[in-house]
Amino acid sequence: MTEDGGSSNQSAGVTVRDDTARLRQLVGNLIDNAIKHSNKGGGIAIALGCADGMARLTITDTGQGIPPEHLPRIFDRFYRADQARSAKRRGAGLGLSICRMIAEAHDGEISVSSKPGEGTIVNVAIPIGARQG
């Protein structure tokens, strides 16, 4: 634990100062979304690495994808891209908004690319040595 209540996680010589509980929430939300939106028999890939001074997480699913007109709003609170399908799934439309807030609190960023019928890729980048604020 660091003095500010965060922790210092180390993996393969990389240290990221963080709020561990919030980062777990971010990863959990993203994996939950990938599972919920993947097609039966589809796949999910999770990659974690470091590049350019950033810890990088990529979660890829082979699900239904997100139509391009919805991509600009998916990080908005309470926004759901497909109301008909969303009614069958739990959640309030807050998950991705919370993920963005957590990434930004760690001086990081989150982005999504998606193609309908092909799946979605979520990228999170947090500076190595970032301090949660």
Key phrases:
single chain, 133 residues, alpha+beta, Heat Shock Protein 90, four-stranded antiparallel beta sheet, two-stranded antiparallel ribbon, 3 helices, disordered N terminus
What report would you give on this structure?
The protein has helices spanning 20-37, 83-86, 95-105, and strands at residues 7-11, 14-18, 44-51, 54-61, 109-115, 119-127. It is 25% helix and 32% strand. It is built from three helices and six strands, in the order ββαββααββ. α1 packs antiparallel against α3 (95-105). The longest helix has 18 residues, at 20-37. It is of the alpha+beta class. It is globular. The relative contact order is 0.23. A hairpin with a 2-residue loop joins β3 and β4 (54-61). It has one domain (7-127): 2-Layer Sandwich (Heat Shock Protein 90).
CATH architecture: 2-Layer Sandwich
For the sheet with most strands, the description reads: 4 strands, antiparallel
The CATH topology is: Heat Shock Protein 90
Sheet/helix structural class: alpha+beta
Q: What topology does this entry show?
A:
Elements lengths: L6 E5 L2 E5 L1 H18 L6 E8 L2 E8 L21 H4 L8 H11 L3 E7 L3 E9 L6
Helix pairs in contact: 1-3
Brief description of this entry?
Helix content is 25%, strand content 32%. It contains 3 helices and 6 strands, in the order E-E-H-E-E-H-H-E-E. It has helices spanning 20-37, 83-86, 95-105, and strands at 7-11, 14-18, 44-51, 54-61, 109-115, 119-127.
